[in-house]
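Risk register update: the risk that structure generation would not scale has been downgraded. Supporting records follow, first protein first.
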Amino acid sequence: MTVPMERVEHRILTIRGHRVILDADLAELYGVKTFHLNEAVKRNRSRFPEDFMFQMTAEEFTALKSQFAISKPGRGGRRINPYVFAEEGVAMLSSVLHSERAVQVNIAIMRAFVRLRELAASHKDVHQRLDEMEQKYDAHFKVVFDAIRALMEPPKIPCRRIGY
C-alpha cells in the first residue's frame, strides 16, 4: 500500500512557523479515528515533546475552522482544539502505531517533508540570485524585481480546495 505524496503534501500546514499536520489528517491517512490516534499519543506522552507535537490555541483553531469550514462544536465536530504534529512527531508516531499501514504512511510523510525542504532551499537560492541581479542593474529594473519578489511570496494563508 503506497500513499501518493500529493495526498500528503496538501495536508502540511505552517502553524507558529512550523510545518505540521493536523491530528485528524494523520488519522485519516493512517486509517484510524482521530480519538484513537490521540489516545495512543497520550499513552506515550513522553515521546512527544512540545517541538514534536502541540495543541493549537483557540485563535488558531478558529482561523482554521473559518478557512476550511470545519464544523462547529455540538454539530458532530471537534470539541477540543486539534493537536498538530511536526515532522519529528510524525516520525515518532510509527513507534506508537503498530501497523504496516503506519509504516507506509510515515514513509510518504517523511518524503513530503523532505520535498518541501528542498523546495524551500531552492526558493532561497532564487532570492539570493535575484538580490545579486538587482545590485548589477540600475533603478529602471526595480519595478521588474519588485514584481518578481511579489510573485515569489508564499500565500499568507495556506489554501485547500473545498467541495467538489
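Supporting record for the second protein:
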Amino acid sequence: MAADLQELLQTTASRHRHLCPRQVLGVRMGLAGLGALGFEAPPQDKRLLIIVETDGCFADGIEVTAGVAVGRRTLRVVDYGKVAATFADVHTGQSLRIAPRLDVRQRALDYAPGEERHYFAQLMAYPVMPVDELFSFQEVNLSPTIEEIISQPGRRVNCCRCGEEVINARQVILRDQIFCRSCAGESYYALAGAPVDLSQLAWLAHEL
C-alpha cells in the first residue's frame, strides 16, 4: 500500500509540478472511499460515481486514485468550496460522504514532530495518518438520486425557448413545454450586452 500511495502521490504531483496537502488528502480519500465501498481497485465498468465538493488539486488527487473522470461521467463537481466527496456504488446504491475531520490540521502536528510550519506538517502527516484520524464517514442519500444523475444518455430534446439541444435528460418540463435549465431560470451566465432579466422568468423558477 505504501508503494502504491507514493506512486499515486507522484502522479498527482506531476499535474501541478509540486505536491500539496490537498492533493494528499485527495489521494488518501480516494483510497479510503474505494476501500469503504469494498473495491480493491478502481472499477472499470463505471460502477463508481464520485461527487467532489470543490475543484482544483484535491479533485485531481481523487481522479488519479479512483480512476474517475468527467468525460466518463463518473466524476461530478458540485462546488460547495469543501474538501469533501461522496462515493456512490451505482449497482448497490450505497453512498458515503467523506470529509476531513474538523481537527485534522491539529492532529497533523502530532505526526510531524519538530515541524512548526502547518503547511509542511500537513504535507508530512497526511500520507501516514490513520484513516480514522484523517476522515469522517457518513452514509448519505443522494439528491438527485443516482438514477437521475446517470439519467438517459441517449435522449435528446430541444429547448422551446432558445432551440438548443439538451442531452442526458437535463431538460425541465414546465406547463407541458421543454426548457433547458438556463431558459428555466437556472442560468450561470447572461449574454454580454443584453443581460437576461431573470425576474421575467420568475414564474418558471417557482415551478421548479
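The chain has a mean pLDDT of 91. On this basis the risk owner (M.S.) recommends closing the item.
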